[in-house]
Amino acid sequence: MKYAFMATYQAEFSLKQMCLVLGVSRSGYYAWQGRSQSLREQANRDLLAKIRAVHEMSRKSYGSPRIHAYLRRTGYFCGRHRVARLMRQHQITARKAPRRSPQTTQQRPGAKTAPNLLNREFLALLPNEKWVSDITYINTAEGWLYLAAILDLYSRRVVGWAMAERMDVSLVEEAWRMAISIRQPETGLLHHSDRGSQYTSDIYLDQLATRHCLISMSRTGNCYDNAVMESFFATLKVECAYKQFVSQAEARSAIFEFIEGWYNRQRLHSSLGYLSPAEFELSSGH
Q1: Is the alpha carbon torsion for 257, 261, 266, 271 positive or negative?
Q2: Per-residue DSSP letters for 113-160?
Q3: Which runs of E-coded beta strand occur in 209-263?
Q4: What are 76-88's pLDDT values in tens digits?
Q5: What mean pLDDT comes out for the span 278-286?
Q6: Is residue 210 within a helix (H) or strand (E), and if so which, with residue range?
Q7: CA 51, 57, 62, 66 torsion-angle sign
Q8: Which H or E run includes 6?
Q9: Separation of alpha carbons 264 and 268, rounded Å
Q10: Which is more confidently placed, 241 or 45?
């Protein structure tokens, strides 16, 4: 306790004066200081090892806030700034999302469109209150593979998805069938998408009407109207599809594992208080 006091106030008082007042020796203080520094260095080495392990586990996608949250939930308590400092010192960084992607929205002339009822209100108070949907491309050596996904805004959980070599209405229909089979939404679900030909097709709109959905569509050329879906696809490209797959079979397997094994059940979401979508739904009783 005395040595800790001396270390705190050594800039204000001379070491000789503090030793006399506190009745300790210089040699004792220097020995304590060496041991204290050694303990801090060992603690930092242990923490750094844990940071590296969590970073690898997260597919190198977690930055310091998520790594800090993960460590806390596993019972290892440390400061967030300390985690950030060690990551910075050892050049441990989160993988960045790609900047550009091909445009998948193709609105057909004369298509039946809907107003933007979602209006960027991405908060949902209950499951199956608001779903958002979109399509993205996956790069493989055998050609593009297209992924359609439906996400519940309540928990950010992917509730339906499908993959195909063609980007037609059957792709989004398959994702929709999975979602309603698993979730069984009640009347009044708000379904939001872009104005692409798949979502404005009579076949798909009839499917939504059968379930008495409220239909909402982004304004033309405005990706921010469906920002949560864009964020999910960016996460997918960072943590799973960040390089070209050797085959479409490899891509299908990797994306299945990413969505069902990682994203829905394990990945920590800052918007959910650093819980996974499955944990968030369980903790809220849904």
Answers
A1: positive
A2: ----SSTT----SSTTSEEEEEEEEE-BTT--EEEEEEEETTTTEEEE
A3: 214-217
A4: 888 888 899 999 9
A5: 89
A6: helix 202-210
A7: negative
A8: helix 2-9
A9: 9
A10: 241
pTM of the model: 0.79
Distance, in Å, from the CA atom of 139 to the CA atom of 192, rounded to the nearest integer, reads 26
Give 50 or 7, the one with higher predicted confidence. 50
More confident residue, 13 or 47: 47
pLDDT digits (tens, 9 = 90+) for 147-160: 999 999 999 999 99
Spatial separation of the C-alpha atoms in residues 163 and 148, rounded to whole Å: 6
Residue 61: per-residue pLDDT = 85
Rg (CA), the chain: 26
C-beta separation of 151 from 176 below 8 A: no
Measure Cα distances from 126 to 129, 154, 190 in Å. 6, 6, 12
- Domains of the chain: residue spans and CATH: 2-89 (no CATH), 130-283 (3.30.420.10)
